[in-house]
Design goal:
alpha/beta; Rossmann fold; five-stranded parallel sheet; 5 strands; UspA; Universal_stress_UspA; Rossmann-like_a/b/a_fold
């Protein structure tokens, strides 16, 4: 059975490192890559009907932009390198969504880049890598 590596990709330097790491291993093991872009979204907002409609419109635009501007160029590049690649864009809490996607797509490993956030923000909100290391149901590789 072929392996699937789920790589969190947002175009940042950290995600580029995770992608490079995952692509090298996918070449070696003939694994399939699933590139996931997760847009942060809080469901705990109190909005009017007009604001909900505007928010839905913005979400649709953001998903389209993420697919065409962030993921598609990378997908094409990886396919040209001979890799099997699929992409997905979702909304929500990044670590939770990545965990759910790993289950949904039967990923055998999650690969994320470490951004190196420190200080108050990291203490208050935690990090995606730290949360995945504690909660993921499949092995999680954190690329420094």
């Amino acid at each position: 059975m072929s392996e699937t590596y789920l790589i969190a990709f947002d175009g940042s330097a950290a995600s580029e490192r995770a992608l490079e790491f995952g692509a090298e291993r996918a070449h070696a093991s003939k694994a399939r890559l699933l590139l996931a872009h997760v847009l942060e979204w809080s469901p705990y907002s109190f909005l009017s009907a007009e604001e909900v409609a505007e928010r839905h419109k913005r979400r649709t635009e953001e998903v389209g932009r993420a697919e065409t501007v962030i993921l598609e160029p990378v997908r094409i590049k990886l396919i040209e390198q001979g890799l099997r690649v699929e992409t997905v864009v979702r909304y929500g809490h990044v670590a939770e969504v990545l965990g759910d996607l790993a289950t949904e797509y039967s990923a055998t490993q999650i690969i994320v880049g470490r951004s190196g956030e420190k200080g108050l923000q990291a203490r208050l909100f935690g990090s995606v890598a730290g949360t995945l290391a504690q909660a993921a149901l499949v092995p999680c590789t954190i690329v420094p």
